[in-house]
Sequence to fold (490 residues):
Amino acid sequence: MPPKAKPAATPLPSVWAREQRTPDQPALSRAAIVREAVAMLDADGIEALSMRKLGARLNAGATSLYRHVATKDELMELAVDEVAAEIRVPELQDGAAWRAAVTEAAAGFRATALRHPWLSSVLGQAGLAYLGPNLMTYSERLAALFTAAGFPEPSRAIDTVLSYVIGMSTTEAAWLTTVARSGETEATFIARLMPAAQQAAAGHEHLAGSYTDAAAITDPVALRDEKFRYGLAVVLDGLALRLPK
Amino acid sequence: MPPKAKPAATPLPSVWAREQRTPDQPALSRAAIVREAVAMLDADGIEALSMRKLGARLNAGATSLYRHVATKDELMELAVDEVAAEIRVPELQDGAAWRAAVTEAAAGFRATALRHPWLSSVLGQAGLAYLGPNLMTYSERLAALFTAAGFPEPSRAIDTVLSYVIGMSTTEAAWLTTVARSGETEATFIARLMPAAQQAAAGHEHLAGSYTDAAAITDPVALRDEKFRYGLAVVLDGLALRLPK
DNA sequence: CCGGCATGCGTACAGTGTTCGCATCGAAGG
DNA sequence: CCTTCGATGCGAACACTGTACGCATGCCGG
Fold:
């Protein structure tokens, strides 16, 4: 409390805090915001992301984010394109190897969808209308793959396999989210859900067997993998019939 | 203002309003709430539904709804099951006609998904884990259909075609929602989006053609129908290979 | 007649996305 | 060197949201 300084012009504690903070972080940038948003979404799910919490994690106020991002929806759009960069699509050297290549591209999509389960929620609300660069190159590579494979209507083939992959991945991700929200492990969650499911299935003869599968409890991950591969094989078989010659 | 009545026990305006209101509506009931919620969702989209607005439309306060519904999530669950009642699955008389029957069941799902675009948002967040009675009978009938068709693994076949249908319908519904939110007709929305899309596709040789399809503007509905039928045919062809004999 | 119980609702709380205007800062220009 | 200026951060505020609590009121069985 030195009485001689000019108190109004430069209040000491403020200056103190400022000089430490500014060189600390690389300030606020669009890229950093999106990166941290993805991290929060992955960690705590979609409903845990709020502008205030995100700002707090970046040592910033909530409203500061709006200097770099127009709206929260735009931020989600950027987040989607951010994770879209993870999906790898192999280039096709041998035309006969298209099945393996498409399988890899599909599995890659599913893998990122399961790594970032919030993606399904966003896709359900906004679809694939996004035009982010990473999504564009993903589409481009898919198109290149299917044309190289020799499909007469590549876009039709792409839509078909993408629809299957999105549908399956979305369903899986939603289930995993539900399980995660319960705080329990998947096996115990299933066990706790079992009685309700069996009661709901009462009177439906064809459904009775669906909820007594022990594999769902012993190794649900492997069961999901197998289910995905089965359906994908079906789709690819159907597509193969449309290859000329 | 008659001074002789007992004013505290029966204040006039209150009695007036009450006697009119009580026989007016069948009061508040779970069924009425769900019905009105679906109506609001259909009319104004998912983000327009709030407990307060829903209460207002039922001549009720917002918190009154909680006497009949535990939480908003539960209300959405009920709404999903409500619209699930619309989907019809034909019974299979002749085993050879399974293709037409499955096609009808798939088209029915898609039709309700497009009639209630908010469904896609909910599915993206919660999946098919719901156990409502209507969803159960839908599953049951699907199972009956695929078993009657002679599939060795009916549940695998169901998961495959359902994944495709969900993926395609979700994508379509999300697109329609985006268009609707713009307030424009689909054709003008596409026209307005075109330059951005073409700029985003710049440098991607295989994508250049995707955004110059005139059919998307002249008759987008027919184009979507055809796209859906194409993919479904692919999936059914793949499944047919797995039928014994 | 009366006591209990289901139903409706007003108030309140914690939290949300977003707007606005002010403070501060680094750089550019006289 | 001083000053202006544009960019950036931020505190306060607004209109909402879902929901918990407690009070009032009506109907129904004893």
